[in-house]
Amino acid sequence: MSAPATPPGKATPPGTATPPGTGTPSGNGTRPSSAALSPAPPVAMVVFGASGDLTARKILPALARLADRGVLDNGFTIIGVARTEWSDQEFRDQVAAATPDAGPRWRELTSRFAYITGEYDHPNTFDLLKSRLAEADRVDGTAGNRLYYLATIPSVFGLVAGALAKHGCSGPGEGGSFARLVVEKPFGRDLDSALTLNQQLHGAFDESQIYRIDHYMGKETVQNVLALRFANAIFEPIWNRRYVEQVQVTVAESIGVEHRGGFYETAGALRDIVQNHVMQVLALTLMEAPTSTDPDRVRDEKVKLLRAIDIPTPDEAVDKSVRGQYLAGTVDDQAVVGYRQEPDVAADSQIETYLALRLRVENWRWAGVPVYVRTGKRLPARVTEVALTFRQVPFLLFDRRTSRDLRPNSLILRIQPDEGVSLEFGAKVPGERFHLRSVAMDFSYAEEFAGSDAADGYERLLHDAMVGDATLFIRSDEVEQAWRIVDPYLVAWSEPGAGLHFYPAGTWGPHMADLLVERSGDEWRNPEIDLHLPGRPTPLTQ
Ligand code: BG6
Q1: Which DSSP letter does residue 532 get?
Q2: C-alpha angle with apex 480: 256 to 177, nearest 5 degrees?
Q3: What is the predicted pLDDT for the residue at 115?
Q4: What pTM did the predictor assign?
């Protein structure tokens, strides 16, 4: 996004990030439909947790795409580390199985991938890793550069980082210019554990070497919030309390917990979605303009915004939140079981699969504007959006009967699945009578950038970690502040009898969540209906 952040005392990394707006021309020859990623430098990527689900589902496919797009250097290799007993060849077979559609470029690179079977707390693992890295530099041309990726269970993040430092692996190898550590979510399970984890990581790596991933930051539409707000003159003047009446963030999923019941029982919607994805989206949407696209200038503004979000007392937290859990119901015409009947879920589980919050942002821009957040599994549709609803006109000329289909102006940032931006405003319905209703002006990514080869979230983030652009990664102070905001809810809910409201799968959450907004005279948008404004061509589908 901007010039790469270089750790103090380190040489400038060979690659640079793509400046905004530098794209390869598309078929029409004038307007770019996708922006090329800059070439990545040579690097040995060490994936801890290499036999796991995340590696197979996300990391390898993203790397394969980067290879086939010509982004990976000839001096790229992977050293997988995990407890599963595999040989190098078995690892390569797993890589091939995880990337069945990959092209020749990836296939060529995979033939050199190596694997270490080892415990994360055993010195042998790291001695072996050290010699494998030296070999990769010698044989594969990885040039002393290191990218460590923690895709393990979170409880060993600190351990692995510490062991890397202890074995002299936290800096670049001979002739190298960088060693970076990519850390997956969840980053802690509350404020205390996040602080401890940051301390452990900082004991081993400098903050400038640490890249905390939130895959939402890799989404094109999340990044587009920056473009919309700061590359256009017309939105910023009305982006404040004088014009905006309320903000709603929705992260709705129609899927349940799938095969992740065991994990979800330790998480719940607050830890799984709100502490990370929602806070990131809110920070970008509500922050002040950064002074440049330098990673730290952008992240400074995000932290400032997070610091302005009111931290409730546990009592206030109860009052301003509604937790729900799905019961059996129907989603997409399929009968589905309730959360407590999912595999690996306790029959009396108190974990929330739905959460609605009312937040306050206490600064000059947003004071008094309610910020409503809701997220849930087994809701009627998959929709992630941010909706800014504007204040009504001071005096409505038209009588109530003719304007009953008129809603307040809204600007909807549609993050997924129908990516784009909509502006809803009132229009006269053709005919002799003066009848008004809301219509939408739509920008659709799919239509505007048809055929685009834009990188998906992981692809983009892996690329940025390789070239040293930390803009889209979460800094330690951001992650800590996000925990400070959500911690009181965790405290409040740990009390016996903390409310949990049930909702049938396939509905928009518990009724209590409606009351949370109705108390202030507001209501939730219904993305199914609201996106179905008459005349809107794209039906909302899963
Ligand atoms: C993950 C959560 O971080 O995000 C999952 O652990 C959730 O529970 C997923 O399903 C949602 O991501 P996306 O990109 O599908 O919105």
Answers
A1: T
A2: 100
A3: 98
A4: 0.91
SS (H, E, C) 410-474: EEEEEEECCCEEEEEEEEEECCCCCEEEEEEEEEEHHHHCCCCCCCCHHHHHHHHHHHCCCCCCE
Q: What's the confidence (pLDDT) of residue 174?
A: 95
Report the nearest atom of ligand 1 relative to the CA of 260.
8
Region 6-14: mean pLDDT is 37
| Ligand 1 binding site (Cβ under 6 Å of any ligand atom) | 253, 272, 384
Q: How confident is the model at residue 161 (pLDDT cuts 50, 70, 90)?
A: very high
Please report the atom of ligand 1 found closest to the CA of residue 416. Answer: 16
The DSSP-derived string for 365-411 is: TTTT--EEEEEESS-SS-EEEEEEEEPPPSS--S-TTTTTB----EE
User: For residue range 317-342, what is the model confidence (pLDDT) as tens digits?
Assistant: 999 999 999 999 999 999 999 999 99
Q: How confident is the model at residue 399 (pLDDT cuts 50, 70, 90)?
A: confident
Q: What angle do CA 13, 19, 25 make, to 5 degrees?
A: 120
345 CA from centroid of ligand 1 (Å): 18
Q: What is the mean pLDDT of residues 258-262?
A: 93
pLDDT per residue as tens digits for the range 530-541: 554 444 444 333
Interatomic CA distance for residues 320 and 311, integer angstroms: 11
Output the six-digit token pair for 539.
């039906």
pLDDT the model gives residue 461: 97
Delineate the domains of the chain, giving CATH numbers in brackets. 34-213 (3.40.50.720), 218-387+474-539 (3.30.360.10)
Distance 186 CA to ligand 1 centre (A): 12
Q: Among 54, 58, 215, say which to mutate for ligand 1: greatest number of ligand atoms within 8 Å of CB.
A: 215
Q: Which residues pair with 201 in a beta bridge?
A: none
How far apart are the CA of 277 and the centre of ligand 1, in A?
9
Residue in 232, 237, 228, 221 with CA at minimum distance from that of residue 390 = 237
- DSSP lists the bridge partners of residue 371 as 247, 359
List, by residue number, the catalytic residues.
Answer: 277
Strand 371-376 to 244-252 pairing: parallel
Using the structure block, give the residue that is written with the tokens 């580390």: 81
